[in-house]
Write a structure and sequence with these properties.
Blueprint lengths: L1 E7 H7 L3 E2 L3 E10 L5 E5 L8 E13 L5 E3 L2 E2 L2 H4 L25 E7 L1
Parallel strand pairs: 1-4
Antiparallel strand pairs: 1-8, 2-7, 3-4, 3-5, 5-6, 5-8
Length: 115
């Protein structure tokens, strides 16, 4: 079963770790019900206590644009790399199949985890 977790905004930019396809992860998440009634899982590691954990293997990583469209990326750089503060990681988003740069400016990502 695949589960999608939203990651991003200030929380990932602050101190989020890099996530790569095929990584085994354990993400603490809060549940949020949107206006349409859909329950979303949002990764948290700061002030709020996780309501649930999503554990498994990363099978897909997507950058989420403001218009709701998604683009697959090879890996999610750490928050420090995304802000330009990692000497060993340029923080660029790359296509998983071509290595070309993904020009999306969003700081919202979707991690698909196979449980």
């Amino acid at each position: 079963m695949n589960v999608t977790v939203e990651i991003g905004d200030w929380e990932h930019e602050c101190c989020g770790e890099a996530i790569e396809r095929n990584d085994m992860i354990d993400l603490g998440c809060s549940r949020f019900q949107d206006a349409g009634g859909q329950v979303r899982l949002i990764e948290t590691h700061h002030d709020s206590r996780p309501e649930t954990h999503v554990r498994g293997r990363v099978v897909d990583i997507l950058v989420l644009a403001d218009d709701g469209s998604t683009t697959p990326i090879l890996r999610l750089p750490s928050g420090a790399a995304l802000r330009g503060f990692d000497d060993e990681d340029d923080g660029h988003l790359e296509s998983p199949w071509t290595g070309e740069l993904v020009e999306e400016e969003s700081n919202h990502f979707l991690i698909v985890v196979k449980r």
